Amino acid sequence: MILPEYITPTLDDWLAKFHFSTELKVRVCETDLFAHVNNTSYSLYYEQGRADYLEHLGFYNHDIMFVVGDIYCHFQREAYARDELIVLVRTSYFGNKSLTIESAIQRKSTGELISSNWTTLVLVDAKTKNTIKLPDFVKEAIQHFDQSNLQRIKTNNSSF
């Protein structure tokens, strides 16, 4: 199985870094004529996982919004109508005004990796809609929950 470069050093090691998960069941309307999940449905699954994760961390009670700045998805194998899936979510990096979320989707019955994803979320003031610096309370809550030493990404020519 060929894995994307952000899954390191091994798949098992990468999966062990996740401390949050949410479950969902594939609806028939999310599949195509062949009864496997349509590629567009994965964006919904990852969004649901991120929303549940951010809600769990208490970030919906503040005047900040997390908007998608960039998104990547790698498909590993098919999921089918009525499959029960687990969406794993974690924060992997902090930027000045953003954070990177990594996610994985596994088949609940077997633990097989179905898909993996990373998303750059940019912080925005809910009232002004301007980007804002990542608040300390966000970093502290994530570090406490994810029990990880997050790195600060330096990106070239990026406002994130």
Report on the structure:
The chain contains 3 helices and 6 strands, in the order αβαββββαβ. It has 160 residues and is of the alpha+beta class. The C terminus is likely disordered. Strands 1, 2, 3, 4, 5 and 6 form a 6-stranded mixed sheet that branches. The protein is 20% helix and 34% strand.
Which properties best describe this structure?
single chain; 160 residues; alpha+beta; Thiol Ester Dehydrase, Chain A; six-stranded mixed beta sheet; 3 helices; disordered C terminus
Summarize model confidence as the mean pLDDT: 90
- Tally of contiguous helical segments: 3
CATH architecture, by name, is Roll
Radius of gyration: 16 Å
Can you say what the CATH homologous superfamily is? Answer: Hotdog Thioesterase
Strand count, sense and barrel status of the largest sheet are:
6 strands, mixed
What are the low-pLDDT stretches, counting only 5+ consecutive residues below 50? Answer: 151-160
Secondary-structure element pattern, one letter each = HEHEEEEHE
Write down how many β-strands occur, each being a DSSP E stretch of 2 or more residues: 6
How much beta, percentage-wise? 25-35%
CATH topology: Thiol Ester Dehydrase, Chain A
Global shape: globular
CATH first level: which class?
Answer: Alpha Beta
Helix content: 10-25%
Estimated structural class = alpha+beta
- First-to-last CA distance: 32 Å
Quaternary structure annotation = single chain
GO molecular function, one term: fatty acyl-CoA hydrolase activity
Organism: Psychrobacillus psychrotolerans
Family: Belongs to the 4-hydroxybenzoyl-CoA thioesterase family.
Protein name: Acyl-CoA thioester hydrolase
